[in-house]
Amino acid sequence: MTTATQTAKKSAVHCRSVTKSYATAGTKVHALRGVDLDVNSGELLMLVGPSGCGKTTLISVVAGVLERDGGECEVFGTDFQKLSSGQRSRFRGESIGFVFQAFNLLPSLTAAENVSVPLLIQGVPSSRAQKKAKELLDRVGLSDKINTRPAQLSGGQQQRVAIARSLVHDPRLIVCDEPTSALDGDTGHKIMELLREVALEGERALIIVTHDSRVYNFADRIVRMEDGLIAPGSIDPTTLH
């Protein structure tokens, strides 16, 4: 899919020369080696590439989960590393939804309670937060699981709860790490339809890390990462089946 007005849209993510390294067992691993990336509002961008090439590290830096070592990275004109700890938490809570590959659901909470957490952090009354959470769980096909805890849900159901949680506070940027990996083809297709619908609302943007070729056609643009860098040129989604 392509968005004809993509170039006229506002910048959501702007990264230049971003670097990130890890020290493991006395060795320095360069996860990001100078990444340049731009994502427009209203765009659904997919990041593809082999495991270990830096995709998850990059989206974690963009979402403010990790601090970069060098370079520049702004989300809607805001640089996380120029904010105080409290400002970072507030900006992330208001503007970013993150679907972690490991789901990161709270085991003691029901599905509806897990989904409502971002709203409760913002100070939304519990009754309103629960109502919105139940609406999102219905949209991802889990209206019958609102009072179920994560341990009683399948992997695919937990993934859908995590996706609902990322959407509940109406973030402007949604970042997903393998959102369809635990889903069957039909459910994955429905989830991508929902994510794409959300991407086109207002000035939102989506970045999706995926190895799932079944969902490539939902992208406006696909970029490939290799060895901690963005490979030159965008990829036509129809050529990656």
What's the helix and strand layout?
Elements (H helix, E strand, L loop, with lengths): L10 E14 L2 E14 L3 E5 L6 H8 L7 E6 L9 H11 E4 L11 H11 L4 H14 L15 H13 L5 E5 L7 H15 L5 E5 L11 E6 L2 E2 L11
Parallel strand pairs: 3-7, 3-8, 5-6, 6-7
Antiparallel strand pairs: 1-2, 1-4, 8-9
Helix pairs in contact: 3-4, 3-5, 4-5
Provide a quick synopsis of the model:
By secondary structure, the chain is an alpha/beta fold.
Give a description of the structure.
The structure is a single chain. Helices cover 30% and strands 25% of the residues. It has helices spanning 55-62, 85-95, 111-121, 126-139, 155-167, 185-199; strands spanning 11-24, 27-40, 44-48, 70-75, 96-99, 173-177, 205-209, 221-226, 229-230. The longest helix is centred in the last third of the chain and has 15 residues, at 185-199. The strands form two sheets. A six-stranded mixed beta sheet has the order 5-6-7-3-8-9, with helices on both faces. The protein has a three-stranded antiparallel beta sheet with strand order 2-1-4, covered by helices on one side. The model is unreliable at 1-7 (pLDDT under 50). It has six helices and nine strands. It is an alpha/beta fold. A hairpin with a 2-residue loop joins strand 8 (221-226) and strand 9 (229-230).
